Amino acid sequence: MEILACRRPVLVSILKNRKLIKRCNTYSHIQQRSMSNIMLRRMDRNPLFKINNPQLSRHFAIMRVLNSVLKLRYLVIGSAVGGGVSVSKKYQEWKDSLPDLSWLEDIFPNNDVANTIQTSLKSIMDTVQNIDFAKIVEDISPIVTKAATPNSKDYKQKLEISQQELIEIQLRYQKELEKLEKENKELRKILLLAKNHKMNMRKVKKSLIDMYSELLDELNDYDSNYQTQDHLPRVIVIGDQSSGKTSVLEMIAQARIFPRGAGEMMTRAPVKVTLSEGPYHVAQFKDSAREFDLTKESELAELRKEVEVRMKNTVSRGNSVSNEVISMTVRGPGLQRMVLVDLPGIISSVTQGMAPDTRECIRQMSTAYMSNPNAIILCIQDGSVDAERSNVTDLVSQIDPHGRRTILVLTKVDLAEKNMANADRVNKILSGSLFPMKALGYFAVITGKGSQNDSIESIKEYEEKFFRSSKLFRDSIGISSQLTTRNLSMAVSDCFWKMVRETVEQQADSFKATRYNLETEWKNNFPRYLELDRDELFEKARGEVLNEVVNLSLVSVKDWEEKLNAELWNGIAHYIIENVYLPAGYSVNQTNSTASFNTMVDIKLKQWAEEQLPRKSINIGWVVLKDMFKTMFEENQNQKLQASDEILETLKTAVIDEALTRHSWEEKALEMLRVIQLNTLEDRCIKDKHNWDQAAQFLTSTLEQNLKVTDSSLKEMVGPSNYEKWFYWQSSTAEQTKRNNIKYELENLLHSNPNHSNLLSKDEQITISNNLKQKNGTPYELDDIWQTWYLVYRRHYFKTALENAQNIKKQFYHYQESNGLQNEYYDIEMFWRITRMIKVTANVLRQQITNRELRRLHKELKEVLDEYSQNNEIKCKLLTGRRVTLVEELNKVKQIQEKLEDFIQALNKEK
After folding, report:
1. What b/e sequence results for 507-541 when a residue is b if at least 16 CB atoms lie within 10 Å of its CB, and e otherwise?
2. What is the Cα–Cα distance from 404 to 373, expressed in whole angstroms?
3. 307 and 257 Cβ atoms separated by less than 8 Å
4. How far apart are alpha carbons 221 and 233 in whole angstroms?
5. Residues 351-396: pLDDT tens digits?
6. What Cα–Cα distance (Å) separates residue 343 from each residue in 328, 477, 889?
7. What is the DSSP letter of 383?
8. Counting CB atoms within 10 angstroms of each CB, which of 343, 382, 505, 537 has the fewest?
9. Which residues pair with 329 in a beta bridge?
């Protein structure tokens, strides 16, 4: 174990840093690299697992074995010049250096894994041993010798033959290399599964590309007043509509993940696809936990449907495209690690059903994405149409005129070979001599066979077969590295990671500067406050709102009942006076019998208590609770004004108003209150002098108040008095003068008959009208007389009742001696019943509030707060100001900066 502990760091370093193929540091040499060279250097670029075995220090790593095998290609080419002896010697040296593979059994206790690896390595060795080096030297040497003799008669003919034979040899060995790559892919899958099995009991760290993808998502959501730009690289896939843009992305992802449309625009929003390596071929959306198995056609169909639904949901009504990004991760064995963004295709004109500004929106969106100085532009050009019809190349040339980050991809070259009269134009495109635009690299790919149902594997086989047999490309030596989507994906991945390493530290420095600026602004403007974001401020407001309910429970019984008594009388006073007291009192004057008063009062009060009074009382109780809550809240805020946080006031007020609006009185309290009120109103007997005085005082104050209101209404009708006219220079209108004359005649009538009923007979109305006509010479309408009579008699009644109330105020003992049988006390008895009913009702409502309604209101406040806490729109509306936005912006910058630093550390470790 001590040996293992000492050697493990060295072993891990070897496994992480060894590459099967030496990578080219300068991407500008893409055109000169051969297809086999690109494939060889990418077969196993990263270590997949760490092996705890001390015997490994005595052996080569697996990657050294594969590296040695794949270097045979250089031996083969070198044999054309060096001869068979040198090749044989090199081969023998390499064969002797092969390690003993028995140590694999110690690494993998599972015999199946060890056997699979040994079988793969044995297959590689057998393939190498079957190569006839002597035959290769014999085939190549004469070709090279003859081709190098320019003075021969048939020099040109032999040169062509030599070129064809060299291509055939290259393709033959390329096929062997593809076979080795396939076996290597299976081996990597087995090792990945073994790694996952070992790590399933511990926390799995995120892969480098996943960390980078999350970082891009954070930057995409970031919005700053300091305009910190997102300049991190990503691969922007752009092309004309139906140019095969989405198909190229699918070939790189090795799955049909996007919906299809026959000539119809399907990509309506940017789709960010993060490609990473994994044991299983799966896809997953950023905001979903579900994984789609890309090896099953049923789940592929569900994935395409989900993508289509998400695109439609992002497009607002009246628009055809959207800027909202759909994020997706695709994992699988052998996938190149990178982040691609698929954009809507460039269109020439707007068709029916599209928004009028669709063309311009797509161009603006594409320009915005390509304007990132570190974005890699994957420009897709349809090879089956004339180059002059391209829209996308002009747009790309404007953004990247020097072609330092542009890769041109020519699709549908199989159709180009069939349809083009001058097929040499394709080669001109790949050489960069046809288009005016410049590019970092040029590639030709095939992404389909003509059917939407073709599998990725079948398309890849068709693509490889086409490029092996195509006359168009057989005549062009040196462009093999520019063919197939496999070479394209590896080249794009190389360029992507090169740019990532060059720009990520610069981006981190930019966010450090932004963070410093924001922190300085906070210190200068808000030095006394903690850095609380919207959610934290909301939680602070939550506690303060709930404390208000606690404060409400501290209100005294006296305060509750005084408030309820006052509001109950204000709520029922009009009904008592207009519908009960005055009709009953008028009946006494009409019948000259006080018994009718009690009879009418009993009937009306009982009917009212059964139908309207309980509901009215509960509504009044609810209003009192609401007003008391708001009053206490405002008083507490005024007392805590200096210590309170004013930014929370709008939110707290909105929460309280919403909770009070939702709150309703408990229904079961209604029936209980009805019974209590009916029983209370039936009791007419006044037991003691204290109650008598209360009832008398209540009757007197009520009559005085109503008399005052009636006097005011009558004065408004008849105008100012003579005193006011002389001393205050007031005057009457003609209508007021007319009403004043009527009032004078009516008062004379009441003076002559103080016990007159509330009704005027027809004869009395005619008599008064005639008297007024004789005095003033103008006729008076009966309606005017009747309207004036209503107020005159009302005032007369209240004055008479008030005089009687003052007279009987001190007659309790006389009332007590008569046992309440004297009819002249009917009005004070009625008001005693009303007084007692209000007092009992106030007591019941107060108990209901303190025992039940406060708890229910507390619960409703919690519900409102919970709802608001989940609604960012409401929180943004109620918690506003630079103080809030500055904290959130600062937190966002800190979060992005931390992710950048973590990513840089992981990137340096991998390097």
Report:
1. bbebbeebbebbeebbeeeeeeeeebbbeebbebb
2. 10
3. yes
4. 16
5. 777 888 888 888 888 888 888 888 899 998 887 776 666 778 888 8
6. 14, 34, 29
7. T
8. 505
9. 274, 284
